[in-house]
Amino acid sequence: MRVLITGAGGFLGTWLAKALAARGDTVTCLLRPHGDASGLAGVAYTRAEGDVTLPATLAAAVAGQDVVFHLAGVRRGATRDDFMRVNAEGTRNLCDAMVAAGHRPRLVHAGSLAASGPSTPTRPHVEEDPFHPYEWYGESKAEAERIVFSYADRLPVTVCRPPRIMGPWDKENLAFFKLAQRGIRLELTGGPRPLTLVDVEDVVALMLIQATHPAALGEAFFCAGPSAPLSLETIQEVGAQALGLNPRTVRLRPGVLKGLAAAADGVSRLTGRKLALNRKLARQLLAPAWTCSGAKAERLLGFQPRHDPVESIRRSALWYREQGWL
């Protein structure tokens, strides 16, 4: 199978590229001219330089591909346009390039639970729930998914919606492990707030099924881990235990977190630096729950996740330390 991965230099992209190359697929990775591809070391792939926000760079990359895995996107930004330009309009540009290619490659799009918005602590989201994004990132991912399905009459399309993903190479959750390394366990008052977690290898496994399964076409699927939801506090506890640490608990009120996030976004606008803390993260952390059900993927595609999120947290913590990230 000939495949193109956009966003191949990112966390999920590196794992997907490794899995595809390992099984003998012909892999092309769309990477920006100065993009970091260190995670792809040792992987057999062809580099295609391009950017989903630059339509002229996409035609050569999609030509001749059987499947396009669209993972490119931004998770941090100081303005709404930062998210919409890449996550939504970049998706439209890619779909246009795929239609223009003329041979109808399948699109496997990486969506997000963020498009659905928070759930309630007692009821996980299912795919039929309407979108109610909570912040700009989720809004852009909801719009991207609407764009993808608007092309369903011209392209075979399917969407994978992961919740919070854990595993080596992940930088989104790294800040919480760094806090533990500094002797701090952050506790947000008013919780606990349950989170569905999933291991990166389970997300890759579902996307590979979606790349060929006929029942995946025209459908979106949540990708949930096999165990009950955890809380942010539990993630930190498990990580600290894996590292042999005993951090002290620091309780933070929601208003204080919001104020710190607003200040961080101000710094980002002035300096261009994308900080770990921002309004998007603060709103996500303060939501009542981020949970989803993986029942549809099991029912229609026969997908069953194999990795316990607790073990994923431990594996991530030890990998961070081995790599000197902590």
TrEMBL record:
GO terms for molecular function: aldehyde dehydrogenase (NAD+) activity. SUPFAM superfamilies: NAD(P)-binding Rossmann-fold domains. Residues 3-217 form the NAD-dependent epimerase/dehydratase domain. InterPro entries: Epimerase_deHydtase, NAD(P)-bd_dom_sf, NAD(P)-dependent_oxidoreduct. Coiled coil: none annotated. One of its GO terms (cellular component) is cytoplasm. Gene3D superfamilies: NAD(P)-binding Rossmann-like Domain. PANTHER family: NAD(P)-BINDING DOMAIN-CONTAINING PROTEIN-RELATED, PROTEIN YEEZ. This is UDP-glucose 4-epimerase.
